[in-house]
Amino acid sequence: MTDNRNHLRRALATAVLAAGLSLAAAPLALAADGPAPAAPADLAAADLAPADLAAARAAVQTPAVLDRLGRFFARGGVPPTGGAALAPAEEERAAAQAAPRLTGESATVFTLDAGFVAGTADAPVASPDFVATKAVSADGRIASVWSVRQGAGWRVVNIATGGDETDYPARAAGTGGGTAFREPQLDAWYVLRGGRVLPLDEQARRSVGADGVSVAAYQKLVHQRYGDKLPGSAYDRAGTGGGFDTAAPARDGGRLPALTAGAALGATALTGAALAARRRSARR
């Protein structure tokens, strides 16, 4: 249920996706052929209702989750099996001192859609993946708590260091509107605005340039990167240690439930179930 920002950079360095990921830093050289661009569906229409966001946030406010948050901060984001040298009593004291509290608004997190990558007609650029709620410790450290719908309720499935999942949607709203979304394979954040995909962070600027690209150009770009790594592809069937998973395993190896059917687009599948959890690199 926990996550550490530094793991993704190390894991991606050894993943077998080097050829696909190398396109991120390359100039855009989009093929004239390839699949027809998917329609730029209105992502805002897929956002969750306020009642759903409130229910997702309520799942974070339970005593059990707040206790896990305190322990997450006590261990500095290192999972219980990650070798954090804290005796139980010491961890208990540190967790209590962390006194985590929730801050800001919970946000629907959109993730690059597999259908869009494949060029499926009318597929949205990104789909709702989970709800993120920012938490802060008494000494100012920040974590993002991820909730997903499970049956009639909501369940917390991950805690990650930092506040990307709420910060970037807020940045998009404050710089002209649109819907923020992530391309987890690159740890890149974009905003879909006015029929264009615009960068919100440095990884995205390296991907689409400072001025962004049209939705059609972005669709061709991500198809080049991942089109041969989608579920059911020869790459996927070979289990080569990379890929484009549509339901990434959680840290305990279980499947991460989706907010909506088919919506949970996982990070690049990496070698080992534990490494296949969604991660991000330290870049601040």
How would you portray this structure in words?
- It is built from ten helices and eight strands.
- The protein is α+β, with helices and mostly antiparallel strands.
- The radius of gyration is 18 Å and the shape is elongated.
- Residues about 1-35 and about 240-284 have low confidence and may be disordered.
Largest sheet: 8 strands, mixed
Helix content: 25-40%
The assigned structural class equals alpha+beta
Count of separate DSSP helical elements: 10
The termini sit apart by 23 Å
Shape: elongated
Beta content comes to 15-25%
Strand arrangement across the biggest beta sheet: 4-3-2-1-5-6-7-8
Summary keywords:
284 residues; alpha+beta; eight-stranded mixed beta sheet; 10 helices; disordered N terminus; disordered C terminus
Ordered list of secondary-structure elements with their pairings:
Blueprint: H1 6-14, H2 18-21, H3 50-60, H4 63-74, H5 88-98, E1 101-112, H6 114-118, E2 126-136, E3 142-150, E4 153-161, H7 164-174, E5 179-183, E6 188-193, E7 196-199, H8 202-208, E8 213-214, H9 215-226, H10 234-238
Parallel strand pairs: 1-5
Antiparallel strand pairs: 1-2, 2-3, 3-4, 5-6, 6-7, 7-8
Helix pairs in contact: 4-5
Question: How do you describe this structure in short?
Answer:
Helix content is 31%, strand content 20%. The protein has 284 residues and is of the alpha+beta class.
